[in-house]
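debug: dumping io for the single-chain case to check the tokenizer round-trip. Nothing else runs in this session.
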Amino acid sequence: MPRIRAVLCIVTVTALFAICAAWTVACPEDPPSAKKPVPNELPRSWSLKGIAKEAPSYGVEGRVYVLAWQIREDERPLRVESCLVLKVVDQNLHFVAFVSTSSGQTA
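debug: decoded output
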């Protein structure tokens, strides 16, 4: 009986080792998205003046705050840049807007 337990234990450990080895080879440690750093500033190609022009109230001067932004790309190539903006015109007048642009093929 002790011999059967020893054999079962060895088979189990060997099987677990094989599964762990296969898992390590098949799955990288970090997903590809985890390797890209998350930006903490607006892209340099973006212009706050351009964003302010696209945000309501059109033609009215005000301070613009970009609250969040997103850049999405796919294989077509299609690139969509968008941001959530708070525009403060005066103490009692604020606007929240979603501003978006796209470039590339759209067919």
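debug: round-trip ok. The chain has a mean pLDDT of 76.
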